Amino acid sequence: MDELAIDGGPKAAEALSIPEWPQPTDTSRAYLLEAFEGGNWCRGPWIERLEDEFAAYHDAKHAIAVSNGTVAIELALRAVGVEPGDEVIVPSYSFIASASVVPAVGAIPRFADTDPETFNIDPDSVREQITDDTVGIIGVHFAGYPIDMDELLPIVEEHDLFLIEDAAHAQGSEWRGQKVGTFGDFGTFSFQESKSLPSGEGGIVVTDNDVLAERARVMQNIGRSQGETGYRHYKLSSNSRMSAFQAAVAIGQLEKLPEENDRREANEKLLLAELEEIDGIHTKPRDDRITARGYCLENVRYDAEAFGGLSRDRFIEAVRAEGVPVYDGYEVPIYKQPAFFRDQVRRLLPPGTDVPDYWNLHLPGAERLCRENVAYSHPVLLADDEGIRTIPAAIRKVKAHADELRER
Ligand SMILES: Cc1ncc(COP(=O)(O)O)c(C=O)c1O
């Protein structure tokens, strides 16, 4: 048996070659230069083109480009008409923006638990959080794996709630042949540099609803009426516009996204077929209703017991040494972030609001994922077949040495 790479042995994943990310492609470079020299650094044809092309790609009627994925969710909340004191159900296992935008508009987040099988919001827990003050739900298609819409949409309809799909991770994902982001009132995306469609910073909101689209456009442009550029402002709101440079880069990146997603999906299938065979590595369910996948990252759950009690941190360290860049993800659920200390949240809400005690909340699914998640980022899935096959080999090698690693 080969010595572990962490002890100076050969790397099991030596052949895993992962492309750099983000990729400064020739097309993005050419568009960026054109935008730079074209005179429209703000608004104008580059923004319009990105909005048209992204709307077409995501099967949405409207797309509105914004400065990042956080303000995209905030804009959607404002456009659906969330008011101070309203309650919004939010995910517990995600990047903080999926929930922190709610107090930012004066509303109260209610955390739903996370399904440890899918890493997505748990519909049963959503039902438990609904009160008379609940106005809507923010759900994340975590890692690009779509939320079970067959379960979530009936809850939305039954309780007359809005649904914002945080699709920051899910450029290109599809549920039953329909692109995500178009099931709810709004879909929101991030184009931050680590995402599969990067523009440095950036984001976009999509909707099929004409009225909501018009509202979002006005609010995105500091209250100006659609298409106006002067000094008439009809709504008190912020400026969340994207620049032409971000749009030009994003258009170039969008051109290669469908092909890249196909490659990622094919590689993931290859990888899953082997990972599923490793006792202690729990992969997400294969679901035929997911008809296409987008990716920001992918996750498995690590069962230390099946690895002879080897801690997840030690496992990750050893696998990384073998050449596979896995990581652990979020250390705490969102409600355990210092930013969710009650006093901090209270300051943003109407005086006298009964703020939930987030610090003492316990949601077992989310907390389990904080302990067991092992993630890899989407560029890993762009490696060649030979490289992909080294990933399970590296995990098996570490497993074979688990006892000696644990005992150190
Ligand atoms: C799930 C999720 N939502 C929202 C965001 C916010 O996007 P941005 O960083 O563009 O503000 C992120 C960013 O990583 C995210 O992962």
Automatic annotation (TrEMBL):
Keyword annotations from UniProtKB, A to Z: Aminotransferase, Pyridoxal phosphate, Transferase
UniProt GO MF annotations: pyridoxal phosphate binding; transaminase activity
Any single Pfam family the record assigns to this protein: DegT_DnrJ_EryC1
Example GO BP: polysaccharide biosynthetic process
Listed InterPro entries: DegT/StrS_aminotransferase, PyrdxlP-dep_Trfase, PyrdxlP-dep_Trfase_major, PyrdxlP-dep_Trfase_small
Annotated family: Belongs to the DegT/DnrJ/EryC1 family.
Protein name per its UniProtKB record: DegT/DnrJ/EryC1/StrS family aminotransferase
Protein source organism: Natronosalvus rutilus
